[in-house]
Amino acid sequence: MATPRTDPLTVEVVDLIGSVVARYYTEYEQVAAQHSLTGAQARVLGLLTLEPMPMRRIAVKLKCEPSNITGIVDRLESRGLVERRPDAHDRRVKLAAPTDDGLETARRLRESLDFAREPLAQLTDEERTVLRDLLRRMLGEDTAATG
Q1: Of the four, 18, 40, 55, 132, which is 20 to 30 A from 92 by CA?
Q2: With DSSP H G I counted as helix, E B as strand and the rest as coil, what are the percentages for the chain, rounded to 5?
Q3: Following CA atoms 55, 29, 114, 50 in sequence, which dihedral angle do they give, to the nearest 10 degrees?
Q4: Domain of life of the organism in this record (predicted)?
Q5: Could you give the CA distance from residue 116 to residue 119 in angstroms, rounded to a whole number?
Q6: What is the pLDDT of residues 18-45, one digit of tens each?
Q7: b/e per residue, 70-92, with b = 16+ CB within 10 A?
């Protein structure tokens, strides 16, 4: 196992990343509450706007238990923001999908999030591209294929 780097620059970068994440989650929870949602409900709704998906896949993407996702989807469904529909490729599988109201709510949520958008607005397109590529590289994603 590799020895963790504890040089001052690495420690500072890790602390800064932690601060960014903490500020983002705080604002995300506040914005979700303004729409009478929990942060978890808002994250599930936002994820579903990308594409309908089964509960198990939502759980994998959000790194939580499928039973938690079922409860979240139940609550979103009772509010008319999400619906369950059969998967065209496997009728045994149910997909969670946003309704029109769900899509509109997710759009309003995204527009309300200022924290991530405002600091990024201070960066040039080139700086944002470098930051995106560095973050992807840190996560082990192939930047050449998507950049």
Answers
A1: 40
A2: 65, 5, 30
A3: 10
A4: Bacteria
A5: 6
A6: 988 888 888 889 999 999 999 999 999 9
A7: eebbebbeebebbbeeeeeeeee
The answer to whether the Cα torsion of 109, 125, 61, 22 is positive or negative is negative
The pLDDT score that the predictor gives to residue 25 is 87
Question: Count of alpha carbons within 13 Å of 39, Cβ hemisphere only?
Answer: 9
Alpha helices in 39-124 (DSSP H): 39-48, 55-62, 66-78, 100-112, 117-121
Pick from 24, 42, 25, 17: nearest CA to 116: 24
38-60 tens-digit pLDDT: 999 999 999 999 999 999 999 99
User: So what's the pLDDT on residue 78?
Assistant: 97
How many helices and strands, by DSSP H and E, does the chain display?
8, 2
CA angle 101, 63, 61 (to 5 degrees): 55
Q: Which residues of the chain have pLDDT under 50?
A: none
